[in-house]
Amino acid sequence: MKIIDQLRAARRVSVPLIAIATPDPATTMDIIAKDIGAPVLTWDVVRGIRPANEAGRAAVETAFRDEAKSITEPAAMLDRAGRLPKESLLFVLQANRYLEGPAAETVVQAIWNLRDAFKADTRTLVMLGAVFRLPPELAQDVLVLDEALPDGEQLRTVVAAQFDAAQLEPPKAVVLERAVDALRGLAAFSAEQVTAMSLRKSGLDLDALWERKRRMIEQAPGLSVNRSGETYDDLRGIENAKAFGRRILGGKAAPKAVVFIDEIEKAMAGAAGDTSGVSQDFLASLLTYMQDHAATGIIAVGPRGSGKSAWAKATGNTGRIPTIAFDLGGMKGSLVGQSEANIRGALKVVSAVADDNALWIATCNSIGSLPPELLRRFTYGLWFFDLPTADERQGIWQLYVGKYELAEQKLPEDESWTGAEIRVCCDLAWRLGSTLVEASNFVVPVARSAAQQVEQLRLLANGRFISASSPGVYRYEPTAGGGRAVNPEGN
């Protein structure tokens, strides 16, 4: 239901106190003010009280008189608001800022004082902010609404309006849809600005639009957009994971974005003992979101350097969809309320960018600390990325020797090396002007430095996780060289 329809429904039953979490307060106010046939006023700490429509002008005179511009203290303004005529609607901007801090007690009381009087004659106090954490004194009295970011229909209107303003021919249907895909996740005002900046005499520069959209997404704490160009064609080994990814990307209800959480076990490590409640809130928010949005996902488990992250990032590029890195640590702020606001804002952006159809991929070096309820949310299961086999390592050497333009030469002893270690060896040989064998002296494989952890992961995955390399369930059979035996039939 659109925000205006929710507000109408609330007004019909005379709800007096409403908080709207919105990414674009100006657009929200504009939509509501045009639709409400009653006095509408706005207040902010800098400009004081102002009318938002013609009926609001008389209301300003009635309730505030000469104080309209000078009344910049929220509690005093709310006290005067009791004089507003019936059916009035008063917007308070950045209202969430006044519900915390040393002055919150006075503001909370002033809001509560309006409840019964406003309810009696259909007056409405509408508090606008990015996110709301209501104090206990108001939690049962304020209706909280959440305005979603613009949908496809709204974004089409934005793009068409910008073409018209630039006096360009209306965009073709295919260009319009590509523009909408590029704009998903932005507020209406932001979408308008980045579209205008990406218009050329020849039409719309979609590459420029995507880059500006990436920058806007990265304004949200903890979110970034992967810019690497690697696709599945640039990866060697992990054939089963690549085959599965291609089928998902090309199948029914193909995802419109990949959400990538790297080393999720570290992000959730404090959920059991964080006294601030931030980690618990992150976990609860993620669980609720994935449940409510029927999210699909994979947890990729394996030793460091086994290709988990590379595969996750390449999935988005292969499907020509954005890969959004979801950094839970980067969402933590200095205040509990700030952290909660950040994760809710990030999830709102994810919903809009992916049109509620994202593939979640989390990597993990150890699942012991992950709660069962979180594992269940990743409905496509646990996939095990083992150290590459000899044949897989051969393909990885060919890939990186070619990328670093190294001459054909003897390869070093690479038993149990990861793909990441092969890349590092080639990089060192290129930088040092050395042979690969010489460069290998500076590489300590994870199979040696963390042998016990690798063995434990293999034993845990045996018969339980899906194999990233071959069809079916992962099977581990220790070999004399410390490697693994793979059943190519997946049985």
Protein topology:
Blueprint: H1 3-12, E1 17-21, H2 25-35, E2 40-44, E3 48-51, H3 54-63, H4 74-80, E4 89-92, H5 104-120, E5 124-129, E6 143-146, H6 152-165, H7 173-183, H8 188-197, E7 199-200, E8 203-204, H9 206-217, E9 223-225, H10 239-250, E10 257-261, H11 264-267, H12 278-292, E11 296-301, H13 308-319, E12 323-326, H14 336-354, E13 358-364, H15 372-377, E14 382-384, H16 390-403, H17 419-432, H18 436-439, H19 446-449, H20 451-461, E15 466-467
Parallel strand pairs: 1-5, 1-6, 2-4, 4-5, 10-12, 10-13, 11-13, 11-14, 14-15
Antiparallel strand pairs: 2-3, 7-8, 9-12
Describe this structure in a few short sentences.
The protein has 491 residues and is of the alpha/beta class. 44% of the residues lie in helices and 13% in strands. The protein has 20 helices and 15 strands.
Estimate the mean pLDDT confidence.
Answer: 89
What CATH calls the topology of the largest domain is Rossmann fold
Shape descriptor reads: elongated
Spatially, the strands of the biggest sheet line up as: 9-12-10-13-11-14-15
Strand content: 5-15%
Q: Could you walk me through the main structural features you see in this protein, from its secondary elements to its overall organization?
A:
The protein has 491 residues and is of the alpha/beta class. It folds into 4 domains: 3-146, Rossmann fold; 152-217; 225-384, Rossmann fold (3-Layer(aba) Sandwich), CATH 3.40.50; 390-449, no CATH class. The chain is built from 20 helices and 15 strands. The chain has helices spanning 3-12, 25-35, 54-63, 74-80, 104-120, 152-165, 173-183, 188-197, 206-217, 239-250, 264-267, 278-292, 308-319, 336-354, 372-377, 390-403, 419-432, 436-439, 446-449, 451-461; strands at 17-21, 40-44, 48-51, 89-92, 124-129, 143-146, 199-200, 203-204, 223-225, 257-261, 296-301, 323-326, 358-364, 382-384, 466-467. It starts with a helix and ends in a 24-residue tail after the last strand. The mean pLDDT is 89.
